[in-house]
Amino acid sequence: MSVREIPLYIDGQAVPSRSQEVRDVVNPATQEVVARVPFCTVDEVDRAVASAREAFKSWRKVPLAKRQRIMLKLQALIREHTEELAALITEEHGKTLPDAAGEVGRGLEVVEHACSITSLQLGELAENAASEVDVYTLNQPLGVGAGITAFNFPIMLPCFMFPLAIATGNTFVLKPSEQDPSSTMRLVELAHEAGVPAGVLNVVHGGPEVANRIADHSDIKALSFIGSTHVGSLLYNRAAAAGKRMQAMMGAKNHCVVMPDANRSQAINNLLGSAFGAAGQRCMANSVVVLVGEARSWLDDIAEGARNMKVGPGTQRDADLGPLVSPAAKARVEELIATGEREGARLVVDGRGHQVEGYPDGNFVGPTLFGDVTAEMTIYREEIFGPVLCVVGVETLDDAIDFINANPNGNGTSIFTNSGWVARRFETDIDVGQVGINVPIPVPVAYFSFTGSRGSKLGDLGPNGKQAIAFWTQTKTVTARWFEPENVSSGINSTISLS
User: Fold this and answer.
1) Which of 65, 303, 427, 488 has a C-alpha 20 to 30 A away from that of 396?
2) What's the rounded Cα separation, in Å, for the pair 424 and 418?
3) How many other CB atoms are there within 10 angstroms of residue 490's CB atom?
């Protein structure tokens, strides 16, 4: 099998990096090297930014309808190439093919939303705000934007960034994860096939040095980041110091509340899928279940469901979860499981040492379930990012709400109940940005904004929806009066009045 050499993408061309630092991209089910990605130089980042800056001069003036037609073409190409993109995701990330195809579909939603740019970017007008004075706003692009994405959604996360950024008239520099870049690069190729001009969308690769250069670069006006809390916080501070607009969607500890009146089988099946799908490598995964009242007796059924889930390579379509992305990720998850045992949590289902026939070198960890978890334990405090579910039992809905609100993160939460009153009480009192009611992973559709909060988010405006349009544009307010040609001034007005 040939190994893909991942290029940079600058000024409309795939170009090899001059860097001598190259990393292997490994299939997590087999440890086979499938690609090599360069860690580009600072000079190459500057070239990409310069290309975007030059392209902005003309791209910002391209009519909205033409940008719309490019987005329409891109959504058609993504739909046409869904299976190809999903296969690349599975090969490098490890998630199952159905899950990978679902990811492509969620990314496609954002591109479809960007197809409405002719109405999304409209300003406002007040006629005769004062005597023969009109006031109106223009939502204009910022200039060069940038995005840095995590490994867990190599198609969806870039789609959370560049489609709306370039549809609003900005140009873009993208740094995808070095762990699974091939699907992202194919997406960028499709964007250029759809008609995105040279320089409007550029790609660089690398680690902290490249990310820091993006955060510091004076020609980049806005930066979108999705990844860990540690990295996001560092980049947010650097970007702010450089005068940038920034959004940082970061770590999470998501809770699923199960009320005793919930549909038992629906709640358990949804809970298991959200906790263990993609081997738990989702920032919106429900990694903590809070069983309320009599629902605490459901633990045995949850454990049985976890034991019956099928682990296998992502190409095995009946598998429920695939491998973790790397041996290091597997080692970290297994160490956290051991820590949970040492700190007194009850290990109900142990996924360590899971073997998959024919894949002896895969980074597999089976579904793992802890009972008797408390807020002081490491497995509760840290984002495990693996197939590990912590179970907490409480007496009442109030206890559940207080427990979740005490956690520093606020990315997502969900509740399973058949009571409208309980659901409304929960959505009102819970201090979390995204809430699911009988929906386990409440990632909103793309025409609503991603609204994580508290320790999970820095910056006022999130990806997608109206907030993304506001993030990628700046408002210019115009106050205008036109005099009749023969109008004679009635004298000097030295006040601030518009009359």
Assistant:
1) 303
2) 11
3) 6
